[in-house]
Amino acid sequence: MMNVPPPKIPFYHHALPEHVAGLYFHPPYITLAHLFHAPQHWNIARRMLNNYQFQYVVEGAAEYRIEDRTYITRRGDLIYHSPSQAHEVHTIPGEKYICISILFDFGETNYPVERMLGEERYLGNFAGHDIEKKLTQLITHYHQPGLAHHTQCQGLLMSILADLSGIKQEQETKTEGQQKIKTKMVLIRNYIANRFNENIQHSELEAMSGLSRNYIIIKFRHAFGITPFEYLTRVRIERAKELAIQTNMSIGEIANAVGYADVHTFGRMFKSKMGTSFSQFCSSIVT
């Protein structure tokens, strides 16, 4: 009886950066994840990719065109597009543009990304949101060598997709009364964001919203996943990141500018909240 060799199973080759190649054993495959500081007059001509792409605005603004839709994206805005979707990016005269860009796919797996995120390419504004934190952690881990860091990248990406899917479902089922409360929570969030370097008190938030302290804490956490004063800490840290990108200020000067008199307290807080040290964050910036 002849020995018949088993049929060959086609191997799906996935191109990865040289320092990552061979480390990803299962999807999602992340082929790019970086913080990009665009030079003046930078643009991307109309093109199509074989990947999904997240584009998150860290600072400034840019015009993003996907198929026949144009989006003016600003601080905190997150958009995405699918494989083979025509898109282009144009910086805006007089505006800086700093973004987090992540390219990923699932190989030959038919993963339902569009069903999770929807057909609308603008996903929302996530300034100070937990999704922003996860995006920052993802790019930090991506630039670290070793399987553990790359596995964390995959986990963070799947967590971001799950968060976005949950937000989409919540928006679809929200009642009118819930929407009014959410609007007040957004007003509180904006109030904090605009006064991040002040000594904000709960009484101020109560006065502007007409809601009690405990109710504000409960509803704010429900809306954004954190309390108002946890959000205040996050805004201060995000402002510190902006200063690191845009200025030559020392760490001590940045800490003081965002409300921390002690640079060591600032350093501990940054690592606790962002999962990476301030110096590691600075080293991940690509220009």
From TrEMBL:
CDD domains cross-referenced by the UniProt entry: cupin_RmlC-like
SMART domains membership: HTH_ARAC
Domain HTH araC/xylS-type: 186-284
Coiled-coil parts of chain: none
Keywords, sorted A to Z: DNA-binding, Transcription, Transcription regulation
Entries under PANTHER family matching the protein: ARAC-FAMILY TRANSCRIPTIONAL REGULATOR, HTH-TYPE TRANSCRIPTIONAL ACTIVATOR RHAS
The name this protein goes by in its record: AraC family transcriptional regulator
